Structures are given as C-alpha cells and as structure tokens.
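User: I'll paste a sequence; please echo it back and then give the predicted structure.

Assistant: Echoing your sequence first, then the prediction.
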Amino acid sequence: MDSEVQLATVPVDGVTVVPVILSGGSGSRLWPVSRASFPKQLWPLISERSMLQETALRGVGSGFAPPIIVCNQEHRFLIAEQMREAGIEGARIVLEPVGRNSAPALAAAALLVAEENPQSVLWMMAADAAITKPAALAEAVSAAVAAAIGGRIVTFGMKPVRPETGYGYIEAGAPLAGLPGVRELTAFVEKPDAARAAELFQSGRHLWNSGMFVFTAETLLEEMQLYAPAVLAAARKAVEARTSDLHFIRLDPATFRQAPDISIDYAVAEHTSRAAVVPADLGWSDVGSWDALWEISPKDATGNVAIGDVFLEHTNNCYVRSDGIVTAVTGLQDAIVVVTEDAVMVTHRDRAQDVKKVVERLRAHGRHEAVAHNRVYRPWGFSESLTAGDRFQVRRVLISPGAQIAMQKHYHRAEHWIVVAGVALVTREGEETLVRENESIYLPLGCEHRLENPGRIPLTLIEVQSGPYLGEDDIVRSGGGEADS
C-alpha cells in the first residue's frame, strides 16, 4: 500500500496548523518486529515509508507549519534521520525524559506553540495509525479546524465497519450550527465487550475513537487549567526549564516527571463542555495488531499477505512476513507468521491481541528479545552480533558517511577490525591510520581508539572482540563523537 499522504493546502485560509505527532509506546502487539528499541511507528509496515513518515507527510503543504514530534529521547536520532529521508524540514523534536501519556506531551507542545501564537491550531496525531483515504481526511481536517477556531476541542470519529472490542467509542450528538460536518460529542465509551460492541455498532450513533484531536493552543491550555491543573503546571515548568541542541528540545527531567501519567481523553476530553466530533470514513486503522495489519494490507487471490522471502502452499487468509530467512508455510488458514533474525511468532488471527502477553512473559524471563533487536541503531549507524562464544564475539558494524564513534578504551577486551566496504580512519593511541577494504587493524586491550568514516559511502567492518568479559558496559570514553553503547 502506497497512498498519497500529503494534504495540498490547509483547509482554512490564513490559519496556521501545527501537526503534533506523538511517537511513544512500544507497539508490543506487533512483536517481534516492533520492540521498545525500535517500535512500530519507525517501521515501513503499510508502505515503503515508515508509519511515522506517513503520518508526518499528512501535514505537509501550504498553511501547515513544520511538525512537532514528541518522543522518547532514545529514538531522537532515528526520528531525525527519518524526517530527513522524507524531506520534512524544520521539524521540532521534543524529547520526553520519561513517558507520561498523551496529556503532558500535548500540554508541552501547546505551551511551545503558544509562545509564538496562542491562536495557532494544533492537529494531534498518533505516529502509528494508518489512513488510506487522504481526500476524506482533507475534508475532515477542514471541518475540524473551523470548529477549533471557534473554541472547540475536536476529535475524529471513525464510522465503524464491524463490532470491535479493541477500540474506544464516541457517541455523536446533534449537528453544530454553522459548522458543517461537526457534531456535539455526547459521551466517550470505554472499550466494550463483544455484546456491548454489537449494540454500539447497531446504534448508528457511536463511532470509533481515532485518538486524533484538533484545537487551538489557547483552548487546550484553558481547559487543562480547569480540568488537569497538575498536568499543566508540571508541563509548564518542564518547558520553561528546557534545553535545546540541534533539532532537539529537551524537557526538564525533574519537573516533567512530576506530571500525572494520564491521557488527553481522561484529563480533558471527557470533562470539557467544548468537545465536538467530526464523523468520517478515512480508511483508518490504529494498526494495533497483526490481524489489523492483515485487514488493511493488499492480499492475493487466496486472501494471503506475503512479505519477504516467503513461499505459501495450500494456505488461505494468512499474514506471513519474513525479515530474514526463507519462510515456507503450508496448510494453514487464518494464521499469522512473522520471522525476524532472532525470533519467530505464530498465532491464529483471532488471538493476535495475545502477542502482548507473550512479550510480557519474555520480559519476566529477562529475555532481551522482548525489547531489542539483534541490530542496534546508533546515531553513527548500527551494529549487529553475528556470532558469540566463550570469550569472543563477532559483530558487523556500519558507520554512516562523516560519522564517528567516541574515543574510548576497554579494560577486558581487545578488538580486531576488518574493513569490508568503504574506508576507516582509525585513531589508536593518538596515531591516525587509514584502513581500506580487505585491510585490518588490531586494538589491544586498554588502548585508546576512535573510529571514523571519512568517505562518502557507508563504512562496513567486521569487529572481532576477545577477552574474559564482553559486556557493553566495559567502555571508558574520552569524548568526541557519539558513543556506541
């Protein structure tokens, strides 16, 4: 699936709309692809672009300001690089020192926008939702912006296509005078059981809660002062004490941690008298499980979705994905099979929500596969373990052009670097050496060293570590460049 995601113009003349993208969470129901170190919004699950890139591109066009992205600080360089790849300039990346749900994140974004213009309209989106009908989205955003200018807090209600227990619901009321396409928001309904979901689906008044909101910075801050003053106070202090470097805005850790952990729905939307809803059919999905991804993905004649090096035989209505080895499936129906380099997950589509329980069990057993991939991304590139044994480990390391790893030394391991592509500039005990393809260099235990890619193509090398202890915490840095752990 590769849809046109950009909205060509902002819906209301003379109004600045600031997209605010919340990029938190680990997407554990999409394990083993989505993990805390590299969650689902950073993966290309519905097109050739990542879900974050798809979301950000929806707010590119005349009248849209560069986006504000609120995210985990560990993902900052990945997100900055994805914005660069998508051609999105001027994005402000706000770093949360700790996750506190959507209300504190939105309060911080609104405070930043209000410093420039309190009347600016914020369009809040989750980074990991799919929308396949951009024309309908443009119409819905136009209606929502008009209502937001009038002081409303507007959400988008998706017309349900089936009873669904995995979504919250919105009850829509009477149309709002002078605001075509906008209705009163009568009530929020928690995620229902199957019987209640069937009732809501049949009612004709209830819509899926998409989690998107539109409001002016001023309106949100006024309503937060009324209904969530502790959230606003902590966010205000964190914004006032913020620091900035490169594209990143770092919220003050001590004050942001004081914010209550609460969503914007519970903090404000369920209490405010200004709530409104735009009913819409956007081809929306929160892509909250592998079954949801199967539903929105293009299928073959037998209902299968096959991604990667996959071979199917006598298989129907399945989602099969391999990010590594050849994967053959035969005789299955309504199944999900996902293969990565270090994990395999198989489930019936009806039990796709239970994948989260598997991740919880892996965490309880201390398995690193629950939170991290074998390939670890860093600001300078990535590394991945190829094999390991008693007193040795072999890794593949890729350094991006112009990037370098900090000067460092190790007390318990020696390293041997073999360049297989590109050119390495190695500093060893103050002496610089160029190491070319099919050449190597030895780094004895305890020697100070730094690795840099001075070229214009990626540098790839094989690193052989040997010693009695190979943990990533055996590292002493001397500054310069980005650390490798």
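The chain has three domains: 17-285, 290-364, 376-479. Residues 480-485 have pLDDT under 50 and may be disordered.
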